[in-house]
Specification:
192 residues; mainly alpha; minor pseudopilin epsh fold; 2 domains; three-stranded antiparallel β-sheet; 3 strands
């Protein structure tokens, strides 16, 4: 089974994201899809050939997590962009944010502060299916530090490629542009 890059060209023209930036980001994402397929194919062949004890097999198994999560996190990211309306004030996500953070404003402040931290990575609003609690989480690398079993609700890419073409080192300006383009319906649908 191989993966195919999804078409997110409808995002071209979003306020605060130049065509150059967004198209470069699509190209990067397509590379993750291509590499996920390549690594999976090589691993499948090594398994068939009985080479699972080879050091290369172990390294490719580790690499697969990087490529796959890079692909999937970008899909979540692009899918929660392109929105033109605010969060439904009577919806389940708003109510859960209010319950877990005290208010939407507190949640937003925490999410933005997490995104403004030094370093590369992702900011993810997760829902813990064990108790329904929401929390904002910093993910440093694609394949490291995801809370086990939790569902990603809202994803913001804070690797430099997501903003430097348009914003240089002004990550806070990129975060503001991101917030103007959140597709809240996509985020809320992930809450379940």
């Amino acid at each position: 089974m191989s993966y195919a890059a999804k078409d997110y060209s409808a995002l071209v023209g979003m306020e605060g994201f130049s065509e150059t930036l967004i198209k470069n980001h699509f190209t990067l994402y397509q590379g993750y899809v291509t590499n996920t397929n390549k690594v999976a194919d090589i691993l499948d062949q090594m398994l068939k050939d009985g080479k699972t004890a080879a050091p290369e097999y172990a390294e490719l198994k580790r690499r697969f997590g990087w490529e796959f999560n890079g692909m999937r996190l970008h899909e979540y990211y692009f899918e929660n962009l392109g929105g033109k309306t605010g969060l439904n004030k009577d919806g389940k996500l708003m109510k859960q944010m209010q319950a877990d953070f005290g208010s939407y404003e507190n949640w937003e402040k925490d999410f933005k502060a997490t995104g403004a931290m030094r370093g590369i990575g992702w900011v993810v609003l997760y829902a813990d299916p064990g108790n329904g609690r929401l929390f904002n989480f910093w993910v440093n690398e694609h394949d490291v530090a995801h809370p086990a079993g939790c569902n990603p609700i809202l994803i913001m890419d804070v690797f430099e490629h997501a903003y430097m073409i348009d914003y240089g080192l002004k990550r806070a300006d990129y975060i503001e542009a991101f917030f103007k383009n959140i597709n809240w319906a996509a985020a809320e649908s992930r809450l379940g």
